[in-house]
Each structure stands twice: as structure tokens, then as C-alpha cells.
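As a warm-up, study this chain.
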Amino acid sequence: MEIYIVIVITSILVGVVCATIAKQKGRDPVKWFLSGAFLNVLALSVVIFSERKNARK
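Now compare it with the structure written out below.
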């Protein structure tokens, strides 16, 4: 039972980090929170290395 609590807390923390980074880059934080919560490290690495939304011209 304790491992599930650790997994849930980790998922929420990664989701918050993804949402914060996404908001700074001009992307939808809700979508990135959900992506981070379910995909964890994969979503975190994608949002970190993605460009700002308005950078492309």
C-alpha cells in the first residue's frame, strides 16, 4: 500500500513541474500536467527540450 502512495505523489509532482515549465513556454499547463502525471519522465523530457510556442516564425 505504501508504494502506491509514493507513485501517486511522484506523479503529481512531475505533473506540476511539467505544467510550470509548459506555462513558462506558452503552452497549455493543464494538458502538460496530465501528460506529466501519466507519462512522467517522458513528458518531462519533451517539455524541457521543446521550444517556446511563439519562437517559430
